[in-house]
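Q: What would this complex look like in 3D?
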Amino acid sequence: MRVDSPNGKKMDMKSVLESRYLNYIIRLIMGIVFIYASYSKILDPVAFSSNIHNYGVTPVYIENLIAIVLPWLELFIGLGLITGIKYRASIDISIYLMWAFIILISQAYLRGKSIDCGCFMNDISPSDAAEKRFDMLKRIFEDIIFLIMLYKLKYDANNKKSH
Amino acid sequence: MANNIKDIFLLILVSLLFGVCRVFLVGDIPFIKQPPKLISNDELVNTQLDAPKVVTISQCKEMFDQKSAFFIDARDSMVYDEGHILGAINIHFESNDDDQILSRLEGVEENDFLIIYCSGGDCDLSEELGNHLFEYLGYRNILLYEGGFPEWKENGYEISSRK
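A: Here is my prediction, written as structure tokens for the whole assembly.
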């Protein structure tokens, strides 16, 4: 497959994947994703603590602590990905977080629990349940895409191509 | 790699510091979340509780027989229709706004005992509704029945269904 490069030259797919521009775009996208995700959580940690509770895996006692610290971590790794400050650490933390999100949503999905309301699917109407199941699958899919993008950044950072 | 771990800890530490500072400045969330405590029989008088509390099935049954509490079913209306504690009011938190909740609680005083239940086990609907009623709508005597409808039904207590 061939595409136009920013300077008008033809590039093949391998060149596109190895291009610095692609990494800058991924960094920008992932940075915005993390900063955007942190914004409402920093403003309302009580609601975020309740969301954490909905996953049904953490001890109640530490839910507020996670809700207080995690949004700031998301903000700083988002900024780190965009600016390049503490870049490798930001990529590593992003990857750990993304794995955690995928595992947490998947376990809730398999247990038939909605992370949206914290309720079990058999406590809500079938149409609501179908909608919530679809949303969870969509989020798992999104997070897998993000994870692939982050692993690309990590691979290139290890080979000193992007940073 | 060692530097990377140092940076990861640094980012977590900075996030912790920002989170802690935010809590001290805004003061909207405690560091440690406490799960609702079991209510003692002495507290089951017409008073104002300091937080939503948990009731046992025997306390529930006693209050049901004495008609000294309102029962609230926090599950979806379709599930409620299939069977609920006799006389329970159905309030599914997700599908009702504050005005609708208040209209369903017409005739209920702020100091009345409200026993909220859902499906037992990990079901969070009753706790979410209870916290909302306590913190935002001014109901002072919120009781959470964690055994929920399955336990009540298993014990052969009074139920009703619309089907």
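A: To summarize the key features: The mean pLDDT of chain A is 87. The radius of gyration of chain A is 18 Å.
Q: Very helpful, thank you.
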